Amino acid sequence: MRLVVFGWGNEARGDDGLGPLVLARIAAAGWSGVTTVEDYQLQIEHALDIDGADCALFVDAGKDTPAPFSFRAVAPRRDMTHTTHALAPEAVLDVYAQVKGRAPPPAFALCLRGERFELGEGLSREGAQRLEAAWAFVQELMATRSVEAWERAARAPLPPLRGKVSREA
Amino acid sequence: MLNLETADAPHKLRRVAIEPLTRVEGHGKVTILLDDDNRVHQVRLHIVEFRGFEAFIEGRPYWEIPVTVQRLCGICPVSHHLAAAKAMDVAAGYGPLTPTAEKLRRLLHYGQIVQSHALHFFHLASPDLLLGFESDVARRNIVGVAAAFPDLAKRGVLTRKFGQEVIRHIVGKRIHGTGAIPGGMNKALHVDERDALRRDIDEIVVWARESVGLVERLHQTHPDFYNRFGESRANMMGLVDARGALDFYHGSLRARDPDGGTVFDQIDYATYPQVLREEVKPWSYMKFPHIQALGAEKGWYRVGPLARVQICDFLSTPQAEEERRKFVALGGGKPLHGALLYHWARMIEMLHAAELARQLLDDADIVGTELMADKGPSHGEGIGVIEAPRGTLFHHYRVGEDDLVTYCNLIVSTTNNNQAMNESIRAVAARFLTGREVTEGLLNHIEVAIRAYDPCLSCATHALGQMPLEVDLVDAGGALLSRARKGG
Question: Residue B163's closest CA among A17, A45, A119?
Fold first, then answer.
């Protein structure tokens, strides 16, 4: 399975850097068939990075999202906001469908809950713990790398792939 | 100016809040106070951001700043990068940039304008321009025009991608690059990189021209609506060169009044503290800059595409200038002030930036290797100003003898446009909300006005699903009557 992984956020803003930090570990792991893309923000041109992939994984920090993280399947959805400053994974998939004229590959979003996002802050204690929990989860995902297994993991209230990983950091 | 900033008796009014619940930093909110008959008494746009910039920067070594400031905004990191580099050129005592270094910085900037404007047009403007009408007749006309541009989405994405490629080749990375450094550039552009960009630029120019044409044709379907929507008579400010041409990268300040008369011209931007004042208002975190000579009441101004194409005497590239002339002719000799006209002006600028980029890609200096200026004694203070995609951006630093930054003041485009945005939203509220029930469709008009300016709200911070809009109706006693939520 050719996989493209997006990790975005700003490491200068505390837990906003959780996405790039997970991405850096994925890149360092050197799994074959995996392409990593880091950016400050998810934007329309990232639709082009999906081309050629069998699956896409979006990794970001979230606020008021489940702790330590959530994992879900995502599908194309038109995004009408008041600003260009943030695109959701669903919107990028929708752009892909518009530009390519076909459905995007299966896609999933891993969202790590963050606590502190102020400029100049480092990771919060909770953020650091959730990074480790998410990293353990990613390794399990990669060990069973198939869309079907990931869909099962996304549907499960407590995904079996998480194994020993606690949901409460 | 509509007198809707402060109501006489706000405690007697109903409160409507449109609140994008982003993160702790950088979210915006619109509050509208209505009386029992739904008449608008007060409208305010609150932008809660830009806190902590100075503390983030002060105490760092000056040479690090052009890279560090890219962390301030994930949407336009190149703007902060270049404005800081220009300021530090001066503070560190460097002489004039080499021709190659200045041209590389300009190409970097033009690439950013192309990608930023393309994103805006594809993601924000075209949905509003194509779909933002309630009239069936207008909608049919608009759909007819849109049908002539079936590849709009593809072109938007590929134009955006081209701009990103310009940035990647010049700074060496997609993000976290170090293209500009105090005194010059850190990396030369290789011939192969230049050639790769040159292969695509002709098509980008064609698409940019056609995008201008699309906006023009849409305007023709409903000209009065486009001209009047969110209209607010404002002073306008931007950079021009010595001939009076718009210059995105460097120039002097020029301001015109709402009727097109000159307020000031050829002002050295390093003297901005004597020309502009930043007012603080108790209800907003963000300052309200104004032209000192005109005072706070009359001195607020507009920046960005709609201001830039109207304060300049001309654009230096032929196709963009031809389009600019058609645009300003709409006003019959007077400036245009409708918020939706930003979109048209923005496409003219995208065409201009693409033409400028093509000129530089055909210039032998662009692949030169003389990248650094000579260094003299440090000045200890530097001010850098550029025309960022959303408008004029000021960076001002003082540097101590230990090379550490001791003072920082940034006036970003969104701050410069603070009052203008408020006035546009008030105009929309007064026209579309007064005397009618508050519906989601009407509140969308407020969003359309905000989108025209595309203010910097999130500044490199965002999270999954954190951009919903929430509308609260609260009675005079503060009780929540209803809540509507959209997006997120």
Answer: A45
